Amino acid sequence: PPQTPIRAAMNSIKMLRGDLPSSGDQPSSNLATYFKNCTVDPTQGIQKRLEMLGQVFSQKFGEAVGPHCIVYGRERFTLGVRLYYKVMEAMLESEEKRLSVQNFSKLLNDSTFHMSLLACALEVVMATYEESSFKNRGCSHGEGDQAVRDLCFPWILDVFDLSAFDFYKVIESFIKAEPTLSKDIIKHLETCENLIMEKIAWRTGSPLFELLKREHEAGATEQAEPPAS
Amino acid sequence: SHDYHFGLEEHEGISELFDCD
User: How large is the ipTM?
Assistant: First the structure.
């Protein structure tokens, strides 16, 4: 039977929590092996970054929704970290098959990669909760709709001071690596992609302009792609 | 995910996107 929007949202949250058990708070033994195989073990760097970003996220969440809701921000961050580790492991397994390598030192020591991946995981968590939590838990202080709007993409980019151009890079690989994503969430990520492609990636300060300038100075030798592709 | 347009080709992946090839 068709579900009410609230029931559908609650089921999505239940499924998200079910797919991300508490054992995922730390890297799995498989993921830890990828870390150890790196020329430079990224484990400590990843841990420190997560601690720092967790504090930033919770603080910004509280500022957006209300100080009494910081605990919900921490809850969402915890789920985001579990999803981040899960997708990271799946991505590395896929890359290992594709490239026949086990040492991903450069990628796993790239701070931008980790921030982009974590931001994407948190965006999935936020989108899953979007329809139900604030309106049902009384966190709104009379401003429920505004709070939900404030947390919508690209809010997470501002929280992490992450460029849209870098965030965009992880989206497709994220969708490929996580087959349990619902149709609604995939649609949401696609909307984020379109927003970035059409607007946000072209804002002042985007790294895209520097890259385009470098390409232009290097001298384009290939023909431009036809509009169809 | 059948409605999502996958743009990366077979020789492309997260490693290339972050200049780790």
Answer: 0.90
